[in-house]
Amino acid sequence: MTAVVFVHGTGVREPALSALVGRVTAGLAAQRGGLDIVPYDWGTAHGATLAAGGASLPPRSGTTRGTGAGPASLGPSDETTAAWAVLYDDPYAELASAAAASGPVVERPPGTVPPQQRIRALLTALAARGDEPGADVGPGLARAATDLAAHPL
């Protein structure tokens, strides 16, 4: 019997792992019978855990992210839906919120380059190299770098 070792991706944990292994097993069985599917759950023992309910950035005072953090009238799925709606409208919303809460602007010493100009210069240089630096992940690197250079925080 042929064994197939299934190694899950970085974001997979139980109970989603069992469901995923079931789908992979069913899909492979449909293609070829007699396979022994051996799942390897490395994430539970060695992977990162999701803190703050999986929020990518900690909540800012007066905002909600995660179960129980918002108004009593909103349930967990309402909060999730509202958070995703904001991100669909503005994919940079969480980053802009974090940047806005970073503190007061201080005067820079003469001759220093503002952080946003350095980021824009690095992204522009990356875009000028085309898709070659990211060839292993597929096309689109140059376009993504150009888009990001237009919106530095």
TrEMBL record:
Please list where the region (Disordered) is annotated: 52-76
Stated name of the protein: Alpha/beta hydrolase
**Protein source organism:** Streptomyces swartbergensis
